[in-house]
Every structure is written in C-alpha cells, then in structure tokens.
C-alpha cells in the first residue's frame, strides 16, 4: 500500500523541500531525455534511494503489476502508430483482408520510441511512491508552502496523495465483500469477464469517494479553512548540512545527465 512508512533512514530525515525538488528535477530530466543510458542511470539512482530508505521494493508489488500492463500498452500503441524508416513488418494486415488489407507497418524507430516511453513511465512511477512513503503528509504540505506554493494548492495536492491509501483500503473492502457473496470474477474469471465485472467495483468506489469528499468539505468549513491569509504551523522544518549536501548532489547529478543527454 502506498502510504507513509515510519523510519529513521537518511531519506526519512531529509527535508521535504529537497525531496520535492528532486522529484521535479528528475521528472523533467526523464521526460526530456531520449537516451536509454541516461534513463538507466536515473533508474539506478532511484533504486539506490529505495535501498537507503529501508523500505522493501515488495511494498510496490501490486502497484508494479498494474504498471507492467500500462507499460506494455504504451509500447504496443507506439509500435503500431509511430512511423519510421527502418521497416520490420509491412503490412501488419495481410493483403487478402477486405477493405483494410495491406495497411500498417512496424518500424524499428517505433519500437524504440515505445520502449523509451515505457521506460520513462516506469522510472517516474518508481520515484513518486518513494517520496510519499518516506515523507509525512503534513511535512510534504509544509515543504510545498516553504517553496512558495499557496497553502490552498499545497493542501489540495497532499489531500489527494493522502486519499491514495484510503482508496486502496476501499477497493480491498469492496473486493472482500464481493468474495463473501461468491463473486470471484476478479480472481478466477477471464479477461472479458473481468471487464464486465468492473462496474461492480467502480460504482461503490465512486459513491464512497463522493461521500468522503463531502465529509472532508464539511470538516474544512467547520474549521474555517482559508479564513486567514497567513497560517501558523505546529511543526516546522529547517534545512541542515546533510540536506544541503544531498541537494547539491542531486543538482550536480541532473546537470551531468542533461549534459550526457546532449552529447549522446
């Protein structure tokens, strides 16, 4: 489950502003680079951070399973629709097929671009849970505020992140309730049967989310949220030597990766 995991690792103690900056810079780097070696080095850095955090990569088990399907879908779509000069298969649809025969082609450039997009997605999706799992929501909100983001928007972002484990728990509860009613399509059913069964999961999930959002809105109104332009905070954050050192390392690493991306 993607939620905060208490710990005493270096990443847990790191200032949330440094982790937010790392997330933003690495995300930009991942989306501007078109080189697999650069993406590989960024992915290696993220895996090292996972190791340092002390959180098992197994915590992302179900999350990564969903990610694999999405990555394969992205690669397939780009392979089919991204053109190129080096043709591997042409046509995709045999000539004897009426009306659409002889259409489509698969090029090396399309396959490589699809793999690049899939790798980008995987790198980003491994980075974001790391930040969430090593940072308290209150510290993350305060980090956004200290970086100049208005508290309203910081509250929106952190509230959305805080709802991820809540939605996961709701999905687990709905699934268990369906199992008690001998509804096992998601476990034993085929692909078509699973697709037909999704409304049984989505409808109660959406209704529960709407009820939850109404309760959150009422609680905010009761506490006069936004009545004062300036806020005070019970807990504060401060940059220390280790935070500045890691920030300098991240900036130097990203600068090196940008340079390597241009050179390759």
UniProtKB/TrEMBL annotation:
Kindly indicate whether the keyword Metal-binding belongs to this entry: no
Q: What is its main location?
A: membrane
Which keywords accompany this UniProt record?
Cell membrane, Membrane, Transmembrane, Transmembrane helix
* Compartments, record wording: Membrane
Q: How does it sit in the membrane?
A: Multi-pass membrane protein
Transmembrane residue ranges: 20-50, 62-81, 244-263
Which protein are we looking at? Answer: Energy-coupling factor transporter transmembrane protein EcfT
- The source organism is Pseudoflavonifractor gallinarum
